[in-house]
Amino acid sequence: MRRFLHAIGLLLALALPLAAQEVPAEPGAAKISVSQSAIAAEGRDRGKPRPLDITVATSRAVPFRTYFLADPPRLVVDFRDLDFRGAKPETMPGADQVPGLRWGNFREGWSRLVVELAGPYAMKNALQSAENGASALHLRIEPVKDKDFVVRPDALAALWDLPQSTVPPAKPRAATEASTRPLRIAIDPGHGGIDPGAQVGAISEAAVMLGFTRELTEVLQASGFEVIPTRIDDSFVPLERRMTKARAAGADLFLSFHADALPAGQAAGATIYIWNSDANDRAADELASRHDRDDILSGVDLTGTDDEVAQVLMDLARTENHPRSESFAKMLAAELSQQGFDMHRRPVRGAAFSVLKSPDIPSVLIELGFLTDASDRANLFDPDWRGRMSQSIARAIGIWSKDEAKRAELLRK
After folding, report:
1. Buried b (16+ CB within 10 A) or exposed e, 106-121
2. Is residue 203 in some structural domain?
3. Which of 53, 173, 293, 370 has the fewest C-beta atoms lying within 10 Å of its C-beta?
4. Is the pTM value of this prediction over 0.90?
């Protein structure tokens, strides 16, 4: 089994991108002028896609490239050295002419604008003009039939900006000989950057989870654990890169934190999810669809990238690690229940969240509560509640790590 897991590690090192650093703005980067930018639809609104004129005004000319993605239809525009920070897409004139509009810094030196479309389109014109030092990119896109909708030829092309790993990832802790290093916990605040997650008024899931995980990190470090954050600021990190970052650092456990939104009365209380591609739960399906959809809307579409052989190997590795994920989920649920936290009536559930797909790291997604529930929302803003939750998570990790150590000892025998 050790040789098998090592083979899986090598396979994943070749198949997945190396963890990227957080995304800072480049010094001297151009700025977007939101007030001078616009989206204009041609003709009367008859409920069908209309030709669109999109203008992106910037403080100076910058290199750019455009392409389309499907499911849902999107126009993606990548810019070199353009800083979107501080600019809100909803304030751009004409933003309501399209189903969705997002932008933000994407990787070092590059930013991305994503325009969700009402149907298939084609690029008619793309022209960048400059005057008195300022610049404007003018895009003209027009509706086309499905057969004429030209998108990127494959999903891997959308990963152009993710460098490939050149070294094998660290082995999972349980597959190594006795180790004295601290347990490594990957902490993943859901969403971020151009993907704010669930929103209730001025409250965004991404910001709330970032704040909570910062407090949790302090508690875990004080408890002797090593923490690997998938993001440390309000930046966008694709789902696959979050897992890759944890893998490259040799994480022993991956914890993703969320506080979603569902229709009133549909969900409340803490819920713990483990991977289950066959789960049949309407609420879980709705949440999984939103999580993956948000990642796709950012311009990274990973649909169909799995090689058949790689998929079989990863499924086998996942079979080995799934009981470890389930074990932690049950221990955490028991700890939270014992400490008096409000839990969903089924506290441990299965769901097809992509962030839980890692085959070689025990992974759990924790819904701390739902922003749409008044009681849950109040808890998330209560320092005492957050402190007790962090301590409970740390205790559950400690109990699980002792169980893992016994398991590893049995494997060595």
Report:
1. bbebbbbbbbebbebb
2. yes
3. 293
4. no
